[in-house]
Design goal:
about 120 residues, mainly alpha, about 10% strand
Length: about 120
């Protein structure tokens, strides 16, 4: 990509030497390096993301990787939500069933009111 040109080294502290030229635009001065491909680029060619500088192609690869990771997380969230909903529904149905069994186990005397008259005889 550099057309055989030698790229001068970066000065410590993150500053680029004034002689350095953009990899894509030979007439422009490079202002930074891509953290992935280490190429020197002008302001137009660099993108800052999460306090790091990326060139266009490297940033596109990063965005695509983020989409794939996000899709994986989204699928897990869907499964997790489905499992939580299924578990909640199962607990609700089990609770209603047990409540019904408990109410059915109450003797018939309680329902017709005779148990109270026998219990509290004057």
């Amino acid at each position: 990509m550099t057309n055989g040109a030698v790229i001068p080294p970066v000065i410590p502290g993150g500053h680029v030497t004034p002689r350095r030229r953009c990899v894509r635009h030979e007439e422009r001065e490079a202002v930074g390096r891509c953290v992935v491909c280490k190429g020197g680029f002008c302001r137009e060619c660099l993108t800052e993301h999460e306090d790091r500088l990326y060139c266009g192609p490297c940033f596109a690869v990063r965005v695509e990787a983020g989409r794939r990771d996000g899709a994986r997380r989204l699928d897990w969230r869907r499964w997790r939500t489905a499992l939580l909903m299924t578990g909640s529904l199962l607990c609700l149905v089990t609770g209603i069933y047990l409540l019904g069994r408990m109410l059915a186990a109450i003797p018939a005397d309680v329902h017709d009111g005779t148990v109270w008259t026998e219990t509290f005889k004057p």
